[in-house]
Every structure is written in structure tokens, then in C-alpha cells.
Write a structure and sequence with these properties.
Elements lengths: L1 E4 L2 E4 L13 E2 L6 E6 L3 E6 L2 E6 L2 E6 L4 E2 L4 E6 L3 E6 L4 E5 L10 E5 L13 E3 L2 E5 L4 E5 L2 E4 L7 H5 L7 E5 L2 E6 L2 E6 L13 E4 L5 E4 L5 E6 L4 E5 L9 E4 L3 E7 L3 E6 L5 E6 L2 E7 L6 E2 L6 E10 L3 E7 L9
Antiparallel strand pairs: 1-2, 3-7, 4-5, 5-6, 6-7, 6-8, 9-10, 10-11, 11-12, 13-14, 14-15, 15-16, 17-18, 18-19, 19-20, 21-22, 22-23, 24-30, 25-30, 26-29, 26-31, 27-28, 27-30
């Protein structure tokens, strides 16, 4: 407000109230997806290739000042306590909510991860210990804050991993394990408590079942939907009276030179499993497990690569192999 005197504008307006705080507010766009509840009563989501966020405790107020646009195509959004992970077809992006910030500035810090780790399947992405696990080109990726690592590299080469069709993977995290199903099969992978942890032996199990969907209840129970010739319906994981047959192949034990191993020991809850040993990819013994005691391997067999395969319905707790049967007596 003002008046003109002799061609000059004199500002004599008075401030009668605060600025319109809703000037930058927008209604949620029609293509809003990946909607997540973030801390401090905020909602967050993706619209096209833009990250959007509401004002605190105002789910209808999407402030355009908070928008973040990405170089790569945004595919998935996973929000943890203070951190949001935008998974793209290139480099992941980390969004962190600031504690205190100037209202004139954005409350978000944006950091692009250095490695190119594209997500291949939206349904593979799961939150884990404040980070996220998802299927990428070369294996399962664990992304925590600014650090990222392919955690299945000890089990699959990139070529072997791609044969699983990770672009079809549907995943869920349950009791420290990642369950991932593709159109080729299902894996169960033990997750480490830290992104810096070394690989664990026996961390990977393959499962013959191929659920169309995994889901977890509020009571922390895992369910799956099966739809094949043998099983149809909703099933609870690790429940029921009967056991399904399993097939487990241990890690390949490669020695520096030709090695002779003469005995092994299996601890299981009952007898009946079939135990097969291989040396340099050749089968040397197939034996039906009868008791939890050391068992001799064929005399004179030696090689560099040793491996075991166990099939059946009995639950196996331990497996040991040694150069002599005496070493297994106290195992």
C-alpha cells in the first residue's frame, strides 16, 4: 500500500498480519506414489522423478520448497527414522531430515551414493536396521546411510545372480533373514548386523517354494501365498505338523593342494536324510543318515574341492568334516 506524491511513491503501508504460510503448499499430485510416513508427522512420496514431502503434522500440505529432483529415474522410496532412501535406475540417493533448520531453507540434506547400484525390482526393496536391502544387477545390496555393499558376492558371481532373474524378485525381511522369490526360485539369506561385517558361512539357503507374495503380520509372523500344482492358499512360515523336503548344498571347500578327508559328522533331529559327498565335482559317497555319530568316507579319496549335499525332511543342526574320525569324536 502506498501513495504517489509528485511522481514519487511513498510506502506508508502497515503490516497487519503474518505472511501467508500456505503460499508454497500444493495439493498432492494425481501421480503421487511410494507414500511413506516419516518422522515428525510428515508424509513423503514420489511424483514422476521428484521427491515430495509435507509440512510437519499437515498431511495435506505438500510444500514445493521441499521438492528434490533426481538425475536418475526414481523407482522406490524407503523411509526409516531420519533417513529416506530413493532407489533409482542408477545411483541411490540418501535424504536426511535435519534436526534444527532455518525455515527459509530446506530441512533435507541430499547425498548421492558414489556407486551405480540400480534397483531391478521395486518389490525387492525392504527396510533393515535403519537401512535398505534390494536386488541390483550384481546381487543383493545393503545400503545404510552413505555406505553400500553387495552382500551376496561370496555366493553368486554377477552372471550367476542374473540367471536368477532378479528383476522379478519379491522380498521381505523376517527375523534377520531376507526372503527373496523370483520366477526361478527362492533364496533365504542371513543378514549381518553391520554393513562392515564379513560374509558368514551357511548364510544362504535356496528354497523350492515360489510364493506369489510374502507378508508379515503386526504380531511378527511370516505368511506366504502359494499358487502351484501342489500348494494353493495362504501358509504361515515354519508352522504346521508336517515338514517339507529340503535340499542343501554346503559351501565349496577349496584347499591349497590335494587333500584327503576321511570322516564326517551330521547332527540332525532324526534319521533318514541322504548325505552325498563330492570331490572335484565327482560323487564319492551317498549315505542315508542313521545316527549322530562320525561316519567314515571311502578310503583313498582325495582332491582339492570338497562339497556335501543333504536332502530329506530331518532338520540338520551341524555338519563337520575332518581328516580323521578321531577329530570328530568330541565335536
Amino acid at each position: 500500500m502506498g501513495e504517489t506524491t509528485n511522481g514519487n511513491l511513498i510506502d506508508n503501508g502497515k503490516v497487519v498480519g503474518s505472511a501467508c504460510v500456505s503460499y508454497d503448499y500444493e495439493a498432492p499430485p494425481n501421480d503421487l506414489r511410494e507414500i511413506q510416513s516419516w518422522r515428525d508427522g510428515r508424509l513423503a512420496g514420489l511424483s514422476g522423478n521428484i521427491f515430495m514431502m509435507t509440512e510437519r503434522n499437515l498431511p495435506y500440505a505438500w510444500n514445493s520448497k521441499f521438492n528434490v529432483t533426481f538425475y536418475d529415474t526414481a523407482i522406490a522410496l524407503i523411509c526409516t527414522n531420519k533417513t529416506g532412501y530413493v532407489l533409482t535406475d542408477g545411483k541411490p540417493v540418501i535424504l536426511t531430515l535435519k534436526g534444527d533448520y532455518n525455515p527459509k531453507d530446506t530441512p533435507i540434506d541430499v547425498v548421492e551414493v558414489a556407486e551405480t547400484l540400480p534397483i531391478l525390482s521395486r518389490r525387492s526393496a525392504c527396510e533393515y536396521l535403519g537401512g535398505v536391502v534390494y536386488a541390483s544387477n550384481d546381487g543383493l545390496v545393503l545400503l545404510h546411510q552413505g555406505n553400500a555393499r553387495v552382500i551376496t558376492s561370496e555366493y553368486y558371481t554377477p552372471e550367476q545372480w542374473r540367471k536368477l532373474h532378479p528383476h522379478t524378485m519379491k522380498g521381505i525381511v523376517y527375523q534377520g533373514h531376507y526372503y527373496g522369490t523370483t520366477d526361478k526360485g527362492t533364496i533365504r539369506f542371513r543378514l549381518s548386523d553391520s554393513i562392515y561385517a564379513t560374509e558368514q558361512k551357511n548364510g544362504l539357503t535356496t528354497i523350492s517354494l515360489q510364493p506369489t507374495t510374502w507378508f508379515k503380520s503386526d504380531a511378527d509372523r511370516l505368511y506366504m501365498i502359494l499358487d502351484d500344482e501342489q500348494y494353493k492358499g495362504v501358509y504361515e512360515w515354519n508352522e504346521g505338523k508336517g515338514k517339507l523336503p529340503m535340499r542343501w548344498r554346503g559351501n565349496l571347500n577349496t584347499f591349497a593342494g590335494i587333500t584327503r578327508l576321511s570322516a564326517y559328522k551330521v547332527i540332525a533331529d532324526e534319521s533318514g536324510n541322504e548325505i552325498t559327498h563330492f570331490v572335484d565335482s565327482r560323487e564319492i559317497q551317498k549315505y542315508t543318515h542313521k545316527q549322530n555319530k562320525p561316519t567314515r568316507l571311502p578310503v583313498g579319496r582325495h582332491g582339492i574341492d570338497w562339497q556335501v549335499e543333504i536332502t530329506g525332511k530331518a532338520e540338520v543342526f551341524e555338519y563337520h568334516i575332518a581328516p580323521s574320525i578321531r577329530e570328530l569324536a568330541t565335536q
